[in-house]
Amino acid sequence: KAGQYVRTLLPPPANIVPEKMAPFEWTQTAFGPPAIVRTRKGAGHNSPYRGIGFHDSFGRQTPALTHDGRLVLCTVTDSHKFLLVSSADGAIPESAMFSIGGKGQEPLLGRGSYFTAASPDGKQLYVGGSRENKATKTPAVHCVFRVALGKPDRAEKFAGNSVEAGKDDAHFDHPLGVACDKDGNVYVCDYGNDRIQVLKPDGALLKSIPQEKPYQIAVSPKTGEIYVLSCPPSGKSDYKGRLVKLGTVVAPAASAALDLPAVHSDLAYCMCLDWASTPPALWVSAGGEYQTSPGL
């Protein structure tokens, strides 16, 4: 909490044993300990491991943390592989790597900066964040997907329309950040519509909260208070973010706000809520780290 180094999870720690990294092939080295070579039964383009590095497989994202301490990461490959990484030691067991799509299979998540949130019971994973990519001619996907973590399979549409944006309650316009509260309600940053849509676990609308350009969201499981990171569209030279505390879903209203320093247009802010500390703390990064004042 004070910024001291604790551990590295990816690449896996040097002292991790092959038994804890079952999806990967290992080889003996001249230095003694074995080393990872590649992903078993999936090396190549669709592998979350390409050689030693990870930079070309994991895009910008805000990973989810399950109730049992597993970090959920998504690759940018066409099959959208997910990894469930133990936050205790970086272990990735056999069942902790799975795909939810592939060429010729729908729905796909599209391309973008992925935002994920795990349900409080750890059974469901919600994914948002697909954006239009003009360079690859990849259209935006205007819906939030759901993946069953207990028995991972293909992603299913949870809310929105995958091919059509809209302003009514049945549609999103570039849904980005997602979060879950202690009751399993799903909070979606409906970026293009300047609002936050709060959905019940069955997908029914619970509340719509006006908020300018909501990019990422977090909800305290202890107090139910909502924290939002708002950012203007990328590409602007004067790129500034704003943190807003909105109270609870029962009576949402801005009670505190903080403007963040301007950053380069190629960077993107990322926020993490430490709800267990007293008072709660928000960690924000965009090429540098900033901790908000305790008053927020």
Main sheet: strands, sense, barrel: 5 strands, mixed
**Number of DSSP strand runs:** 22
Our count of helices gives: 0
Q: Which residues form runs of ≥5 with pLDDT under 50?
A: 42-56, 103-107, 288-296
Assembly status: single chain
Helix share of residues?
Answer: under 10%
Instruction: Tell me the strand order in the biggest sheet.
Output: 3-8-9-10-11
Strand/helix succession: EEEEEEEEEEEEEEEEEEEEEE
Mean pLDDT: 77
Shape: globular
Q: How big a fraction of the residues is strand?
A: 35-45%
N→C terminal distance = 17 Å
Radius of gyration: 19 Å
Structural class: mainly beta
Sum this structure up briefly:
The chain is mainly beta and 296 residues long. The protein has no helices and 22 strands.
SSE arrangement:
Elements: E1 24-27, E2 35-39, E3 61-62, E4 64-65, E5 70-74, E6 81-86, E7 97-99, E8 111-118, E9 124-131, E10 143-148, E11 156-160, E12 175-180, E13 186-190, E14 195-199, E15 205-210, E16 214-219, E17 226-230, E18 242-245, E19 256-259, E20 270-274, E21 281-285, E22 289-291
Parallel strand pairs: 3-8
Antiparallel strand pairs: 1-2, 4-5, 5-6, 6-7, 8-9, 9-10, 10-11, 12-13, 13-14, 14-15, 16-17, 17-18, 18-19, 20-21, 21-22
What labels would you give this structure?
296 residues, 5-stranded mixed β-sheet, 22 strands, disordered C terminus, mainly beta, 4-stranded antiparallel β-sheet, globular, single chain
Structure description:
The structure is a single chain. This protein is mainly β. Helix content is 0%, strand content 36%. It contains no helices and 22 strands. It has a five-stranded mixed beta sheet, with no helix packed on it. It has a four-stranded antiparallel beta sheet with strand order 4-5-6-7, with no helix packed on it. Strand 8 and strand 9 form a beta hairpin. The protein is globular. The two termini are 17 Å apart. The C terminus is likely disordered.
